Amino acid sequence: MRSIRVFLATSIVSLLTLFNFVAAVQGYQSSMREADALFDNQMLDLALLVSNLDVSDERLRSLQLGDDLAFQVWQNDKLLAASANAPSVALHEFADGYDYANFNSYRWRTLARFDQVHEKWVFIAERMDLRFVLAENVVLQSVGPLLLGIPLVGLLVWAFVSRGLAPLRKLSSVLKAKPANDLTPIDFGDSRLELDQVVASINGFVARLGSAMDREKSFSADAAHELRTPISALKIQLHNLASTVDAETDAYRELQQGIDRMQHLIEQLLALYRSSAEQFNAKARPVNLLDIAQDAVARLYPEFERKNQQIAIEGDEQLGREIFTIYGEPFALETLLTNLLTNASRYTPLNGQIVVSLLRHSDKVILSVEDDGEGIALDDRARIFDRFTRLSGAQTGGVSGCGLGLAIVRHVADLHGALVKVTSSRFDTGTAFIVEFTIEGAVNNGKKDE
Q1: Alpha-carbon dihedral angle through residues 159, 162, 166, 168, given to the nearest 10 degrees
Q2: Both 147 and 286 in a single domain?
Q3: Residue that finishes a domain, picked among 95, 119, 151
Q4: Are strands 69-75 and 120-127 parallel, antiparallel or unpaired?
Q5: CA 74, 80, 86, 89 torsion: positive or negative?
Q6: With 90 as the cut, is the pLDDT of residue 2 above it?
């Protein structure tokens, strides 16, 4: 059973039902004992009454006491008088006490009493089924309301259990509302004693996770910073080497490409570190995506020109440039666009086309980067945003890269509460990367951070 509330409510109602059943059994047995004692006393009183009757009166010799009672009067083994429903044989042994007998299709409780004054035996019999009926009536009257009240008790138990689990639901809501990049301790406020340990354990886990992530980020950032210097020195030495060796050889070109890949990896690691939640919270402000797009295209234009690629920016500015303003961190958004444009340029052939478009739709600003390259298969679109993941076609097609560019794109989009989608482009071939920024959500996030 997966629901704690259902388990607790079912368990409590089941225990109450079991308790009522046991109480009913005990009540039935107690009622039977009390009924036996009551009826036995009545039989004794009736025996005393019958022993004082004048049995010489013919009218008493066949007296009818009702279907549930019978009597006999014996003296010297002779039946002096009996009720009309009594048999002709003795109802009881000639010995004082209680016993049972069967006659007239019923089970009877019998009593034998010797009257020493009149020297005669008086036998009294009473039907046993009447005692069971009385006991059942007593039990039903006492236990019946309890059984009928079980549904009401179940509703009350459900309400109380739900109220008791309310702090747990509140904790769950707090955890769900906590952003994925928020590793601050949970301030649960007025928590119950049982939840204090849970909250403490969660905060301890979050603290350890935060420390591990900080160490990872620090290591990546420090390593990238430290590697920048030797990479720069290698590039200088490679430039100087070009004047003494043939720069057109395969060995020289492979060495240059390897150094370029190392430099690109270091820059991407630094970009990943700088686009963290802490950086976002510290530097977020209103940013115009159209300005970011124009600056990124201008900075990367030499790369497009080298491959003779056509690059265009589309945006409906008739309503004003401010319609493309969102709340975000400028460097992170610049990194996102740079990676999307660089990725489009790498996988678009010579003389290809790349289009950057901006669209304002309701409370969203939609950014898309499209190309007419080979495109991405449907099965590969779900994993291209994983770190250090490069598709087999890219790896064998001579395209350099480190597998971090699109991972950084997804990371930056998550920081801004944006949605990233991959679809086919407007061209016959190629891919479109679409990033949907929610204006209201981004502005509210910024206000909270402030």
Answers
A1: 170
A2: no
A3: 151
A4: antiparallel
A5: positive
A6: no
Does 209 map to a domain? no
305: domain CATH number? 3.30.565.10
Q: Which residues contact 224 (CB under 8 A, 6 or more apart)?
A: 266, 267, 269, 270, 273
> What 3-state DSSP class applies to 172?
helix
Spatial separation of the C-alpha atoms in residues 373 and 123, rounded to whole Å: 114
- 388 torsion bin: left (phi>0), alpha (psi -120 to 50), beta (else): left
DSSP conformation letters of 381-394: TTTTTSTT---HHH
Q: Which domain holds residue 78?
A: 4-151
* Residue 128 identity (one-letter amino acid): M
Residue (of 209, 185, 211) closest to 199 by Cα position: 185
Does the residue 197 lie in any domain? no
| Local structure of 307: helix, strand or coil | coil
Strand order in 310-315's β-sheet?
Answer: 310-315, 353-361, 364-371, 431-438, 419-424
Structure tokens at 204: 């301890």
Residue 422's contacts (CB-CB under 8 Å, 6 or more residues apart) are 376, 381, 384, 431, 432, 433, 434
Rounded Cα distance between 142 and 30, Å, is 12
Where on the phi/psi map is residue 124: left (φ > 0), alpha (ψ -120 to 50), or beta? beta
Nearest to 340 by CA among 379, 296, 307: 296
**Residues forming beta bridges with residue 111, ordered by sequence position:** 98, 124
Pairing of strands 310-315, 353-361: parallel
Give residues with Cβ within 8 angstroms of 17, minimum separation 6: 150
Of 134, 151, 168, the residue that ends a domain is 151
Is 86 inside a domain boundary? yes
How far apart CA 439 and CA 249 sit, in angstroms, is 52
Residue 205: inside a domain: no
pTM, two decimal places: 0.49
Rounded to whole angstroms, the maximal C-alpha distance in the chain is 155
Q: Are 262 and 402 in contact (CB under 8 A)?
A: no
Average pLDDT for 99-104:
90
> For residue range 386-426, what is the model confidence (pLDDT) as tens digits?
766 666 554 334 445 556 788 888 888 888 889 999 999 99
Question: What's the pLDDT score for residue 340?
Answer: 93
CATH value at residue 36: 3.30.450
CA distances from 96 to 82, 99, 120, 352, 358 (A): 18, 10, 12, 121, 111
By C-alpha distance, which of 380, 364, 365, 395 is closest to 431?
A: 380
